[in-house]
Write a structure and sequence with these properties.
single chain; about 170 residues; 4-stranded parallel beta sheet
Length: about 170
């Protein structure tokens, strides 16, 4: 039995060591580590610092689950976005190892903290809207919930950091 988690920097544990650096592995004091220890099971923390809900959904939809996995999906704030481009996708491989976030032709992360990048800011000014992002999040949550409930049953849980799924104005 494993605990499989998906999320952003909160789930990854970025910053728990007092630095803003995203380390190659999640922090040992991140909440998934405590939860796995409490349950006495193995942990596979698939979270990515700065992850958008679209990236979280993508990774969770393409993960290779075992029948007895416990899954927790911690959704991110709705001010983040991901553009998916040319991806050679092999179903049921570890999507975290396939994702090349540095290759903008494959996956391009968008975040309001990237204000020095004009193409990203034009996305927010011309296309982003809080209601649209809320609808996107709700549809991704529903689709992933239906998929995982069918696959794993009642061992699937969703959570959000309070306020992150609100209608956050940019």
């Amino acid at each position: 039995m494993r605990l499989v988690t998906f999320g952003d920097s909160f789930t990854y544990g970025q910053g728990l060591d007092g630095t803003p650096i995203a380390h190659p592995n999640s922090h040992e004091q991140a909440w998934p580590c405590h939860m796995a220890k409490t349950l006495g099971i193995e942990l596979d923390n698939q979270s990515v610092p700065g992850a958008s809900n679209k990236l979280i959904w993508y990774m969770a939809m393409n993960y290779r689950y075992q029948t007895d996995d416990i899954v927790v999906v911690a959704w991110s704030c709705n001010t983040r976005w991901l553009k998916v481009g040319e991806v050679t996708h092999k179903m049921y491989t570890d999507p975290r190892h396939e994702i090349e976030l540095g290759d903008d032709d494959k996956f391009r992360q968008y975040g309001s903290w990237m204000e020095d990048q004009p193409d990203i800011m034009s996305f927010y000014l011309d296309h982003w809207h809080s209601v649209d992002m809320h609808i996107e999040l709700c549809s991704k949550m529903d689709q992933l919930n239906r998929y995982l409930q069918d696959k794993l049953g009642p061992r699937v849980f969703f959570c959000c950091i309070p306020g992150i799924s609100d209608f956050i104005p940019l």
